[in-house]
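Tutorial sheet, problem 5. The three components below are modelled jointly, 953 residues in total.
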Amino acid sequence: MKRLTGLLLVVLALGGIALAQNALLINGAGATFPNPIYSKWFDEYHKANPSIAINYQSVGSGAGIKQATDGTVDFGASDGPMSDEQLKAYSDKHGSGILHFPTVLGAVVPTYNIPNVSTSLNFTPEALAGIFLGRITKWNDPAIAGPNKGVSLPAEDIVVVHRSDGSGTTYVFTDYLSKVSDDWKNKVSKGTSVNWPVGLGGKGNEGVTGLVKQTPNSIGYVELIYAANNGIAYGAVKNADGVFLKADLEGVSEAAAGVAKNIPDDFRVSITNAPGKKAYPISTFTWLLIPAKISDAAKRDALKGFLKWAITDGQKFNEDLEYAKLPKEVVAKELKAIGSIQ
Amino acid sequence: MNPRLRWRKFVSNFMLTMTGVCAVVAVSVLFFILGYLVYHGGASINWNFFTKLPVPVGELGGGMANAIVGSAKLLLLASLFGVPIGFLGGIYLAEFSGSSVAFVVRYAADLLNGVPSIVIGIFAYALTVLPFKHFSAFAGAFALGLMMIPITLRSTEEFLHGVPRALREGSMALGASKWRTIMSVVVPAAYRGIMTAILLALARVAGETAPLLFTAFGNRYWSHGLNEPTASLPVMIFNYAISPYEDWHRQAWAAGLVLLALILIVNIFARAILSRGGTILR
Amino acid sequence: MATSTTTVPSAGPAEGSRSFISRLRNGDEIARIITFLFAASVVLITLLLVLQLWHDSSIARHKFGLNFFVTRVWDPIAEEFGALPFIYGTLVTAVVSLLIAVPLGIGAAIFLAELAPQKVSDTLQFFIDLLAAVPSVIYGLLGVFIVVPLMRVYVEPALKQSLGFLPLFKGPAYGVGFLTAGIVLAIMVIPYIISVSREVLLSVPRDQREAALALGSTRWESTWKVVVPFARGGIMGSIFLALARALGETMAVTMVIGNSPIVNPSLLSPGYSIAAVIANEFTEATSQIHLQALVELGLVLFLLTFILNGLARLLLVLTAQKGSGMGHV
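Model answer (structure tokens):
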């Protein structure tokens, strides 16, 4: 017994020892999509400013919003902008508002697995909506075959794969489908979790990728980087100007550029189905959610400093990780907005 | 030998062989899992893994040192919280209580056991994070400890019941008080089973992710003391496994291997230290 | 093996005249009170949990009422929520997993307790305990990478060919679905059954076995007809543990069940479970009614667990034999 108690005390002491540095710890939570670039940024910023340690956990956009509203983290992050209802809930609770800051851009692609088809398929908005609504059930349906002359599509049933967990990726994809299909808008609408008419649910981008990879004749939607890194086929989508585009960083930046001049002051904007010949239609901003009033001066200055760095110097890390840079106009506007954080 | 006897002998041999098959199947599943983890994650286990903090994707040389220490902290705290409640509660059920109280407590424990780990996480969040407005190792340990209670309680009671009455009566006949009897005679007699149950409970919570997401949260850096967000192996595994990067996937498998090794070591350690016969109370 | 609360006769005033305070001086009374407090705290915590769930789902409960149990729709946008597909999926996967895990688990426990030499038994048990420590995320991943393809390519087509006339095995073979989830769950709960059952079997007194053998029974007969019934209570206890785990498992199930809120008699169909949908949608749920509906689902699971536990205990009581070990439930 004595031996046991002694051992316990030693281990507890070890656990309680403060290890080295007394860095200022700032906690943030939210979106999974930008996790790779955010972890890079926070790490680089910490190297340049060792007294500031920003700890970000990708628990999901909704959880990020919830925790920011609860006040259990210092900032949040989300792939979809907060709704008016959520903004009101925040300001009711805290007495001041919360601000959106776009950080990077990304794309969602339709990925598929059809045995013997290795070329990149062209998808029209009508085809995508039809497939995910469950109206188009076979791969050789004219709506799909039409823009893909020369590719022999099998007469097999399409296995639809969607996200089971609520996510910003779903938000972007359904936002796009709502814009291009009234049917979709009325039947399913947009959100982080929707009532999918058909299909299997995969958990996370990884889950959808995995299911599509393994299931013949399947189609799903994932962030660009998952398709690129896993070597699965993804198709081109017809944009608002009628051009079939495969997702790449340039296309995403073009989508943002179209909106950049008229971006609203609170930066909450959707850039799906953006105008422009080179604009990729299923693109999105992702935002950091920073409280408008931060009482802890050290944390406030640290966050403001980080934000300034992230939207300027930090952007040089984007492309290696398959994220697009922010347009100049947006950056300029954001720099001004950062000044308003008190 | 008459035909009936021959049949019975045949059945006996057949069924006993079948039990052997069952055992082989169960164990081979484990070895398969271990093998898979080693094959896919073995390469990522190096000195860095145990000593360095995590680094962003694309950079080499990162590790999970903070997660390993974090998991150890969380599990230790969780045991300090969950095991005494389960153990002492089990003693009450087996030695002191009437059957209706015991029925209610057992039922409650079984219900608690069936709660999804994420609901426990949400419950712990409301109780231990929200009021204090920050995440901490305490909160994580609370959530994990809650999950340890039912297994510990039920098993303690079960194994104490298995101790023959004669032992108790003999001790009391020698003049020992009830409590003394329990601690010096009954518990040591049921020691093996109880130890197994506690280690099983520990093993179970060691691999849980969901409760920690809302309580201990996670930390890319070292956490100081017990009142800050803390990294843990299951959360790291979860984050890395769902990422698009091959390198992080390998690290996730490696982390799974390390977690298993951690539990194995605790198992060996606990059995060795606490098995030196004699009484629990000196 | 009911114990009696034998009090130790002590020097001092006769029984009836002892006050509470003087009873406290007797260490046993303190022990009784302290252990009672700990036992009671378990009930308290469970009650607190239920209350929290009840409170956090109040709006949803008033809005949906009893229809919640029979509605099949789950639409976060239209704010229509129904629990039926999830209740169905939870029950089906739990039943499938127990159907696989209980025979295998008890069989293995019997082997380890009765047949294997001490050292082999201990070593194997050690390893089986490790199975319980594998993180559920890893079970999920292994399920996705190994079990699902196996099911899709070999097992499910074979089942369809041989037993396809049964409604249990109709429909396309996706690989994910109720059956796969049941199998993965079975692997996850087996260590609990084996571990606890083995310990219980080992603690059965030798004389029981020897008496049976002396009366001429075969090895198997003495095990199955005497030892196992003696250990019935403990074995049932281990099954309760396994059931609880199967009902509440989140991560692993969500990766292999297909996550589609469907009620379909076929085991090959994709489905959904309560724990899985809570895990999937809770962190991203944005509207209050959505969150409340999820919490209400948690409450429903509680109810399910309550009922299943009750049924299992009833079964235990109804099949109790005289003279066997644990008479308690």
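Marking note: The longest helix of chain B spans residues 3-41. Full credit if you identified this.
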